[in-house]
């Protein structure tokens, strides 16, 4: 066990856990922030995607000991009231079916748009290819990412 | 308007018929609990008034509608309450939706499966809204002393024009709650629907996109422990002993033990399938700690003995044979090949197929196979349980709560009334969450630990635990005469361990000489319902074969099918044909028109397929380009006839999902075995469809209809397997007979 001080969604959190614990389980089990989902545990499905700084990372492969003072953003902290352009586009397109993978999809998409505000179809496919949606909402996800990109451009 | 009898007093009959799984099933159960005494009304919170089991109205006019069935992405949590709200005549904006608890007294058919939620819920949901409206009208009529038939309603307002009086539902809710439940109610004319047929957003959308707890795996309770299982590594093995000396010492670990899911001698019901009846369990403080201890637990296994078990399917008994041995995929295919030319049971025979084949000018023959598939719900199997001597509280995602409750009651020896099952949103179901052994496991673990417990399967446990889509094989033969007319048709099919045959489906009824026969092979691999069970294979085989036959006789594949359907309509062969040829032809004609079938772009390869299952019709045209030895799917055009469409955009989403899921499984889906051990155990080895491989565009068109709605979770899934196979043939000149079609798979696309 070791003590860590983590900056998550703008707040400081103190926890005492095994240093090998992945951030996924720190978030879900120790901080009860359950928006970040477990899907595979081996960085193959993207359900656990969070932002480390500005980068989309798979929190199931991110040991708490490697975070240091880098800021983590989870789906709960992406926006104050669920009004991030990506979240709004997701609602407008009514993307989700079961909804389980969508937090991870939204975190990957929002990190993409931060780096590349006007992505091509190919850019979107490349960025989103690591996120599995078992229900098959891919065409809607792509549409929502484009819609969010346009919102960003126009605002 | 339609007048409907509310049939008070038929409650027990209605419940039985729902369990029998067929016939007329109307959801009237709420009538038993909807009439409340004045005492009960006065005990309600001041502002809410329960009108019946489905809904309550607040004094400010807000309406809470309970959605009775489990939500797993089919969007019924939005669509079912829309049906109630429409008949109630309220503004959808004023409706709050809540997930109903499992309550067999208040609701019937709280199932997710068989694309049945809307179909079976339709009448009951309408009556729930209509009878509540009637009670509001009755309350207003009493207060205003006017005849009730002079009172009109609109968007939550009651109005009596002659006396110029009006009231909101909120103002009348208190009085309405004391009104007698009407014995006859009026349902709206279809043309008067104001909410049904409009696109409404997912009621859980905001919670989903902001990451709020919605799923079973998100359940948290103070003092809750986490549990995981360890099961034998291969089918055909069972647990002999465990060595927990290391695991028990690991940090955060509370206990290690084994549980038997079902007691010896228990007669399992239909959904009680469990591959490994005895599993090891590790309980600890946190998931990560339990995952580490899992690695340290040593288990010793021994071969199972072959067995025969009596099982019960809603009162009908059958014997399930489980052979011993360690099975392998290569042997499975060899076994199927050997048996396919051997014995089979004739399920339907029209005319004289033997003679017809003998006299045929030409015989076309093809054989199709498909592997086992794992469901791979994104939310792994899990359940929360808090079991004490007196009661059991269970929270989580499951598809058949009513049946699972009976199983748990038998296992714990606890009366059903002491068991409380709460349904969370399902992170995918596709059939897998019908087999809720993990609920029983969670309950047994909580009982032993005397603490609230959340059981979570690792992805590897989830994928290697069985209950797969069966592996199948089908051989088709078509005999044509010298005029290229189809004169004989033969299907011989089977599977491990179930047959996919539907002998009365198309093209039965269209060919004079027809033979359908099947066989099965026992296995110790467990199987279960998987999105459009059996149709998900046989549609692909049949529709790929018809494409081949159409080509052989020089006909357009859509026209060829339409000609057969014309025969089925005008002069059907045989008495029992399970489809309506006109509706079947209807989706083919619609997809032909909408896809621009006659005007294909250069460089595009195009395949068509259609199928009828789960009471709905679907036809699809798939356009692809072949690049770098891979299909790039430009577009899928889909026509669906599922009767009245309740929530068009949500229905479109679900249809799109079936198409993407189908393409993924057709191209990549496969779980294979070596000496009983699955070769795939996570998404690095089990190939799922990803964004890049999904169609660039999907156009879904619904047939305009005033027929009562039928299901949509399944019908767009089976035909797309064949649509892509037929399009790939056009691109490459090679027919695809063996799924998955792309064996040389790159794992990340």
Walk me through the structure.
Chain B: It comes from Maribacter cobaltidurans. Chain B: Pfam families: MoCoBD_1, MoCoBD_2. Chain B: This is Molybdopterin cofactor-binding domain-containing protein. The complex is a heterodimer of chains A (155) and B (749). Chain A has 155 residues and is of the alpha+beta class. Chain A has two domains: 76 residues, Beta-grasp domain (Ubiquitin-like (UB roll)), CATH 3.10.20; 70 residues, [2Fe-2S]-binding domain (DNA polymerase, domain 1, Orthogonal Bundle). Chain A contains five helices and five strands; from the N terminus they run ββαβββαααα. In chain A, strand 1 and strand 2 form a beta hairpin. The radius of gyration of chain A is 15 Å and the shape is globular. The mean pLDDT of chain A is 97. Chain B is 30% helix and 26% strand. Chain B has a seven-stranded mixed beta sheet, with helices on both faces. The longest helix of chain B is centred in the N-terminal third of the chain and has 28 residues. Chain B contains 19 helices and 31 strands. Chain B has three domains: 202 residues, Aldehyde oxidase/xanthine dehydrogenase, molybdopterin binding domain (Aldehyde Oxidoreductase, domain 4, 2-Layer Sandwich); 175 residues, Aldehyde oxidase/xanthine dehydrogenase, molybdopterin binding domain (Aldehyde Oxidoreductase, domain 4, 2-Layer Sandwich), CATH 3.30.365; 305 residues, 2-Layer Sandwich (Aldehyde Oxidoreductase, domain 4), CATH 3.30.365.10. The two termini of chain B are 55 Å apart. At the A-B interface, helix 1, helix 2, helix 3, helix 4 and helix 5 of A face helix 7, helix 9 and helix 18 of B.
User: Would you tell me the overall average pLDDT of chain B?
Assistant: 92
pLDDT < 50 stretches of chain B: 6-45, 745-749
Q: What is the helix fraction of residues of chain A, given as a range?
A: 25-40%
- How is the quaternary structure best described? heterodimer
**Which CATH architecture of the largest domain in chain A?**
Roll
Q: Class of the largest domain in chain A in CATH?
A: Alpha Beta
- DSSP helix count of chain B? 19
Alpha carbon gap, first and last residue of chain A: 47 Å
- Rg of chain B over CA atoms, rounded to whole Å, is 27 Å
**Category from helices, strands and their pairing of chain A:** alpha+beta
If strands are numbered along the chain, what order do they take across the biggest sheet of chain A? 4-3-5
What number of domains of chain B? 3
Summarize the helix and strand pattern of chain A as letters: EEHEEEHHHH
Shape of chain A: globular
Please name the fourth-level CATH homologous superfamily of the largest domain in chain B: Aldehyde oxidase/xanthine dehydrogenase, molybdopterin binding domain
Strands across the major sheet of chain B, in which order?
12-13-10-22-19-20-21
